[in-house]
Amino acid sequence: MRLKLLLPDVKIGEFRQPKKCSRRNCTGMIFYPRQIVQKKIVDTQYEEVSAWRYECAKCGCTFRVYPEGVNNQQISLRVLGIAVMLSILGLSYGAVELVLGSLGIGIGKTSVYRAVQFAAKKVPGMKAGEDADQLKTWLEPILDAMDADVLVTDDADGFKKVSDDTGRSQQVCKSHVGRNTDALVDELSARIATTQDHSLETIGVTTEQALRDLGKLKEMIHSRIPEDQALLEAMYLRYAKARKPGKGKKHDVAYRIRNLFMDRWNLWPRLTFYRTWKDERFVGIDCFRNNRFLSLLILFTNYQFWNDHTLARPWRFIDLVTRCLKPDGLTRLVL
Ligand SMILES: [Zn+2]
After folding, report:
1. Rounded to whole angstroms, how far apart are CA atoms 109 and 103?
2. How far is the CA of 23 from the centre of ligand 1 (A)?
3. What is the mean pLDDT of residues 178-207?
4. Minimal CA–CA distance to 310: which of 287, 281, 277?
């Protein structure tokens, strides 16, 4: 992961002298402090901070100067930092809202969204899961701290490597893969029906057969029966002979179908993992019914971590979050 975050502290007594007038194009350099005003904020520590109202000596306009870690937004910079961090960890905006809400920090998912967009603008290339080794460095201590058995992630390759390298089982997000597969099947089916591409002929597969296979895949991806892996393998083998087109040439239909079946065949155990997994007390992952949490990167622990929409053991999560936030803790976050 390329992003480093250092969560800004909120220092209620520390103010920076204004250097510029808040009015656009005003060149004023001298400002008089006029009064102290109170401002309600959403923060981990403070409900309210003081701000200074300054007046510009040149144009007479007034503006506020906020203490360190607070700006004109209602949410403190460190809470925004936590929100960004959780989002990078894989929580959906709604899930971030829920988790922070359970910690007593009221922040809406729209604010989370805005904070993430803002951070992404500041850090070009910010994307979770790009670099498996860095991802592992970041995740492994968290996995250990959480005593996690199962990593729940989207389909990014980096996560597969982390779960394999750390000996964790992995559940790939069902709705993610379902959506992707549906879209791909629809696109490929449409292409078969309309295109002059003869790649299927070349490997001896009729268009009817290909359409049947794609339709079957679409069914399977939603029923997710573990034993269907053998069927996927057989379907993959039908297309295995498709060759990669030469450099710079577009991938043809047969080669794309081959890759699709190969990928889903390999992915299958991770996609259907939840069907058979039980912890030592035979507690299954039944909260998978709840799609809202499927974008979660972490974690189902030995304890059933999520219990139908609610954090069953919130202190485990609080522990994780506070460890992450300590300057010398697991992770140093620099925003
Ligand atoms: Zn001014």
Report:
1. 15
2. 6
3. 91
4. 287
